[in-house]
Structure formats: structure tokens, C-alpha cells
Amino acid sequence: DAKTTQPNSMESNEEEPVHLPCNHSTISGTDYIHWYRQLPSQGPEYVIHGLTSNVNNRMASLAIAEDRKSSTLILHRATLRDAAVYYCILSPSGTASKLTFGTGTRLQVTL
Amino acid sequence: GAVVSQHPSRVICKSGTSVKIECRSLDFQATTMFWYRQFPKKSLMLMATSNEGSKATYEQGVEKDKFLINHASLTLSTLTVTSAHPEDSSFYICSASLGRAIDTQYFGPGTRLTVL
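^ inputs. structure came back:
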């Protein structure tokens, strides 16, 4: 499986934008980039996914580099409820693909 | 969004007993369900992939006779930890997939197992 690299932790002030980076230099052409997050003592939650183009949804935006070797999850206005571990995961297209979780980025949001 | 539940949310058992954890997709039919284990301060580790009506596929190093998985219907999968020992104490999380070409996994809230 292609590997992703994320910073261990990041901090943000509430109401400010947060850019969470992910490097995936060995990504293959069929790999989708998925982002999940896990709040404390809960199961992970889907955030967003993309292949080549930038993506937006109600939770976040995903900016994908032109060479697809990196991506950035953007939370436009961080709130205290966004404090979580954010996982960037590559998964080939196809039904029921396995997700391999790395260590993720622990995001702290302060007032 | 799709909702996945787990029961129980928390269980404490004695060493040597068996514990069953249920995972249900509440508002969709899940072709595939996954079982993960997470130790404190660690990431999720996939234990097995379960397809409705067929045997589960276990990840390397996961004992299939110890962690019995049954996926009898499109909305229910169960994980039974047999002859539990203290080292089996962990956070067990299931997820369910709709089985579409570009899959999102919907995760349950997790079950905290403590073996005394």
C-alpha cells in the first residue's frame, strides 16, 4: 500500500483556517485520497475524498497537488469540536477497499 | 449520512470468558463490514474484512479462531472474542461499506473491552 506522511500534531486558534498537510509521493494512478478524523473515544468519521481535482463539502476542502504527491485538508474556520486526529489515507478505487490508518495528525484547537 | 451502531459500548469481563460485540448498519445495507482494534494512543489496526454470507478475511497475525466474525445479514456483523485475556483489552471499532465503486466507510462508535 502506498504510504502517507503527516505531521504528528498541529495547533490552531478557534475561528481560524487550518491547513493539514499530507505527503504521498508513492501514490499510484488509481489511488483515491481519503481523509477521516477521529474525535476522542469515538470511531472515525469520514471527512472528504478526492482523486485529482480539488473537492469541497460542508465539512472541509481538499486541495490536491498537480502531481498528486501531496494534498492538504482545509478546515475553513476551526472550532473546538474540530479537535481530533486527522488521518490521510490512500485507497485504490473499487468496492470495499481496505483503509490502512497511519498515525495521523492530532489537531488542537484553542480559544 | 449512514449510521452504524455498536453494542455494547463498554464491557468488562473476566479472563477466559467470551464476549460478543454487535455492529449494525441502521439505515443502509452493508455489503462489507470491517473490524478494527485500537490500543491507547495508537492508530486503528484492521483485523478482518467481512462480507455478508461468506467467511471473513483476516489480516496477517490475527487469530481467526480467537476472533470469530459472523456477517449473517446485510445489516449485522458480530465479533466474538473467545477466551479473552487481559491483552485483548482494547477499543474495538467496526465500519460498514455501501459497496459502491468509490467507497466510504461508515464507522461505529466503538466498544471498549476490558478483560480482568
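Chain B has a mean pLDDT of 93. The radius of gyration of chain B is 13 Å.
thumbs up if we can close this ticket
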